[in-house]
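**Fold tokens**
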Amino acid sequence: MRLFGNTKCFSWVKQARNTVKPFVLFASVLCGLSLASSVGIGVASAAGAEELNNTLLVEKQVFTIDHFTTFGGKHIERVNVGWEAYGELSEKRDNVILITHYFSGTSHAAGKYNEKDETPGYWDNLIGPGKAIDTNKFYVVSVDTLVNLNAYDDNVITTGPASINPKTGKPYGLTFPVVTIRDFVNVQKALLESLGVSKLHAVVGPSMGSMQAIDWASAYPNWVDKVISVIGTAESDAWTTTALEHWATPIKLDPHWNNGEYEKSNAPVDGLTAALMLVTQNALTPDFFNNQGNKLAFKNIEQAPLQDIQQNHSIVDWLKARAETRSKNMDANHLLYLVRACQLFVAGHQETLQAGLERINAKTLFIPSASDLLLMPYLANDANQALKNLNKNSALITLDGELGHIEGVSNAVKQANAIRAFLEE
């Protein structure tokens, strides 16, 4: 059953956008790019020229659920999400690997939408023919999450606060139900079931994607054989929960936010930009910023900030400019909802982490980044040890490098051999 490139042509996707326009929001820049790419880090920098020449051409498809009930018991009349697939689904439908994306990511995990695309999906150096996640062997599926941050990206299909509420004809805003990592998982499960899939060879994801991967294994243990958690965690502990709140605060303080009631033309751009500045800095490291400062000839005593309190240092302007560019694709309310989904996360969505981990049957591999200042390595270490204490099959290897959290997006290929071995053993 050949599904590489998927079953519907790209022109159909354009048609679908018109069909579901009240519910689907699109944008134009930075589709599927990692945070690393937004700060000038080449996502495919570790991939060889030969691999890049074999980049897949992929197509975005639309999956619709007419009636969806959230983990919190709230009803959404219609849910639309975009999805992509790479490789060929076996006749037994038993060779599926699900890729779950990170906080600011999309379903565009690999390949290009056309030959003129300048940038492939964020894990293109890992996913493809002959690569660590080998599409000659596996059918690889990736799905845009609910409340995807990139609500205005031309290649993103999502339902969230910025979508039109069919009952009012206006954006949902804060009337949209609170969603959880489990809701992302359940939408993915519904999509897979529509393809006739009832078993996953593996779930693999970085950052927020790692939360989805672990929750998959806990919520549906009979579905999942293997989990790879990259720069991940099995719960948002007290430190992580409060750290995430800093991303939400600038948006809530922006007067244009108006308790979530705003039009795209009058959105809280300043608050969203400030939030994205925090996201970027939290996801990188002092070494990276100091190196960037050297490139900008950063000095403590620069004339602009010395002469005018409203002027910034060169490194601050550099960070702000990149956040402003990224904000054009994104929605502020969506960021708040994603923050809350991550804050609410504990594997299995049980009363305790142990209760969630006890349900896991999958073989698990954790790959933290040693320099991660966002989801710090202790989180993966603790989860790995907790699984071992429960006599579960779990292992951990580490990514080294100066990119901090971003190592898991841009440079997970450093552990390509380990990933390949884990998936194929």
In short: The domain at 10-234+347-424 is CATH 3.40.50.1820 (Rossmann fold). The chain has two domains: 10-234+347-424, 246-334.
